[in-house]
Predict the 3D structure of the following.
Amino acid sequence: MSDDSPANVLFVVLDTVRKDRLGPYGYDGGTTPGLDAFAEEATVFENAVAPAPWTLPVHASLFTGMYPHRHGADQENPYLEGATTLAETLSAAGYRTACYSSNAWITPYTHLTDGFDDQDNFFEVMPGDFLSGPLARAWKTMNDNEALRAVADKLVSLGNVAHEYLAGGEGADSKTPAVIDRTKSFVEGAAADGDDWFAFINLMDAHLPYHPPQEYVDEFAPGVDSTEVCQNSKEYNSGARDIDDEEWEAIRGLYDAEIAHIDDQLSRLFGWLKETGRWDDTAVVVCADHGELHGEHDLYGHEFCLYDQLINVPLMVKHPALDAGRRADTVELLDCYHTVLDALDVTGGDPAAAGEEAVTLDRTRSLLSDDYREFAGVDGTDRDPGQRAAPDGDFGFVEYSRPVVELKQLEEKAASAGIELPEDSRFYSRMRAARSTDAKYVRIDRIPDEAYRLDEDPGEERNVADAADDEDDRIAAAESRLGEFEAAAGGAWTDAADGEVTDDSLAEMDEEATERLRDLGYVE
């Protein structure tokens, strides 16, 4: 980057926000006047592809520049290890770094916050001192024992479970003002010390359950009582609970209200940066880590599928190297890692500790580069280890390992309603997808593959996987590129993973870890 490139980067993740509920992507619900204004001076990417449909692997990719199969962070190995993070690289380069969120996955015990000079998780049930105490020790002990990993998954899911029952009126949105205030204090402190900075914030308002402040309920969901609508996606997905059209409308109204609150708070931060003369010297990235389903495909939440409502996410970037306007080409969220390095003129690639992998800046992966996604002629075996994934400029790749935490909760909801979930279903499946602007192919290990012509069928209503062989060149290309990606990732997921999710390992836990789970309601 040139000398007049912004010295600082603000990276904002709108957790669980689907792009079709935002003004910059055509929504006329009035939820995002702040982002509408931001979009006027940013590049709006219309085909950004998330590397996974949920928080942990997406953030691990943002922080490492690696696809999920490479960094290995998922619910069966629910913490990042063996990889140097973006924050570690930037801190070593002299930047002041901070991470603020209210997401239970973005904490020290998952190692996603490694390298941040300052960090805080405003999650109401799991305060920072507890995370660094017995829970963190129990977490590491259990994850080092493969038999106990299912229990370790529950230690993270406890945050969302407790949040579901305790968050009425005091949910994640009540923490968002604190995240914004803390970010402002961090920026002021860095400026006072003469330090350039990188700030990462995750705003959780739009994640279930939806309990927005009353003023936003009154505007976007008038008359709706958030405690009376279905706030547990597993009840619906398991078949234990039905939702009619009127209730879906209420749920979507609450979702809009949450997004409007995010927009208001983010506008407060943007306005302060402008008022204090810092806006022009700050590159800004705004994206969602994944979206949400509200009944489409008969699903609720963001599990068990790779439909576009989840993985075609909003992404907007403000930087002098990018013109304000819209781009329709395929981009990947993973590339934000390289974009930040490029914006701050940091090469990276130096491991923070022996035995770790650190991904070097690749300008064919930087959104700021004229060479972005010009992969032609690049041998994947010669690329950085974090990028060995058969790069193709037309396609983005998505990976979804079995979500054992959500699956256990789904089974419990089904059992309580006398429903038996078939193991040969999407609930127990692992999935990978290749997505271009016009076609998507999804490989699924327990049920038939799915493929869609997105240009003709944006709602993904007509599965045309059978046309991959010779009837549709674009579907065939998507399947071919997916096959190349799978080969680079170590092979396709063709054998179904063990369907059983049990609590048998509880008997093997140490006393302290057992007491932690008992205190939190997981063990009687």
Q: What stands out?
A: Residues 94 and 275 are 26 Å apart (CA to CA). The chain has a mean pLDDT of 85.
